[in-house]
Design brief:
This protein has about 350 residues and is an alpha+beta fold. The protein contains 11 helices and 9 strands.
Length: about 350
């Protein structure tokens, strides 16, 4: 038995070195340690070894098994590396100049974000940014969204461990919970606490939700938030702004519709539907593109604004949705794959009068 083991171990390296593919490896492995393998056969002889010699023999077998396993592992690793190198193709010299000399193009989401910002700047709004790591206060509490609201469910969003620390947080409240913002509406509160009315801001940015990705959903997407606070602001002003935005963005051939809805931070609240000729891949006439409403007096009160003096409107829109309508894109995932063949199609698009 001892001799059989040493012969097996002595021959193994040469046999294993000759293997080239995973299939060959699996066959060879089975020939050693499979149910009918050589090594298994030697182990089966243990029963014939006299009782006294068994511990010593067992030790020898275990050692041999360990050595054989090391050789098998090394062989598999070698084969996997060769496979990977084959997938990667010939070695790349990163010091060579790029063969792709064409100019870069703007991403469709960038185009839509910039165009929306330009349109809203013309109407007197300023563009600001808010943090993507938010506290529950800005994302929910201050927006009149109570603790038991389903939007706060850990199933619906991404919370950080309570001991996490972030550079954008200067004053750390121990019991405060941090999360990836679920909407850009948190920027409304940050702005109102920092400045005084009249306020006219838009804030585009990334938001996060626990969502399963498909052709129209993504767990990470982009929104554009808008807030106007002043005296005597009405729903009419809100509707007028949205009409102006869509005429500027898409031309005259479109309609905007308000559908009553519920958001805890606006009263009344609406969902905004758009009907436009830019929608050949979308079968429905009306496409939902965001939410809006008049700032709820409870939100004003919560941050120390007198609701008998101040009024305001707000809306939030999905930038992906807009890009998909404008450019006739039928799968949201195309926007995140960074496939230059897709992105190059937007090289003719620009931020000028001829948008899109
Ligand atoms: N935050 C909402 C969402 O993510 C969208 C929204 C609705 C924004 C109403 C608003 C608003 O500013 O007033 O679905």
């Amino acid at each position: 038995m001892q001799e059989a083991l040493s012969v097996l171990l002595a021959k193994a390296p040469a046999k294993l070195a000759a293997l080239k593919t995973r299939a060959e490896f699996e066959t060879a492995k089975a020939c050693y340690v499979g149910p009918n393998g050589e090594f298994t056969a030697i182990m089966k002889q243990m029963g014939t070894v006299p009782k006294k010699q068994r511990p010593a023999m067992g030790k020898l077998i275990n050692e041999a098994k360990g050595k054989l396993q090391i050789q098998l592992d090394a062989t598999l690793q070698r084969i996997a590396e060769t496979e990977r190198a084959a997938q990667l193709g010939p070695a790349i010299d990163p010091t060579l100049p790029s063969p792709d000399t064409g100019p870069g193009t703007y991403h469709p989401l960038t185009l839509v974000r910039e165009e929306m910002s330009r349109i809203l700047r013309k109407a007197g709004f300023i563009v600001i940014e808010g943090p993507e790591v938010e506290t529950e206060y800005y994302c929910f509490d201050a927006l009149n969204t109570p603790a038991n609201h389903p939007a706060r469910d850990t199933q619906d969003t991404f919370y950080f461990p309570t001991n996490a620390r972030f550079s954008n947080v200067t004053k750390k409240v121990p019991e405060e919970k941090y999360l990836l913002r679920t909407h850009t509406s948190s920027v409304q509160i940050r702005t109102m606490l920092k400045s005084k009315p009249p306020i006219r801001i838009v804030s585009p940015g990334r938001v996060y939700r626990r969502d399963t990705t498909d052709a129209t959903h993504s767990a990470i997407f982009h929104q554009l938030e808008c807030l106007y606070v002043d005296k005597n602001v009405t729903v009419r002003n809100l509707k007028a702004l949205l009409d102006y935005i869509f005429v500027s963005l898409l031309g005259n051939d479109n309609k905007v519709r308000f559908r009553p809805h519920y958001f805890s931070y606006t009263k009344p609240s609406f969902e905004v539907d758009l009907s436009t000729s830019h929608r050949s891949k979308v079968k429905k006439e009306w496409i939902e593109i965001g939410g809006c409403g008049m700032v709820d007096p409870a939100v004003f009160e919560g941050i120390g604004y007198d609701p008998s003096v101040w009024s305001g409107y707000a809306f939030g829109m999905g930038l992906e949705r807009l890009a998909m309508i404008i450019y006739d894109i039928d799968d949201i995932r195309c926007l995140y794959q960074n496939d230059v063949r897709f992105l190059r199609q937007f090289s003719w698009c620009s931020f000028n009068e001829n948008f899109p």
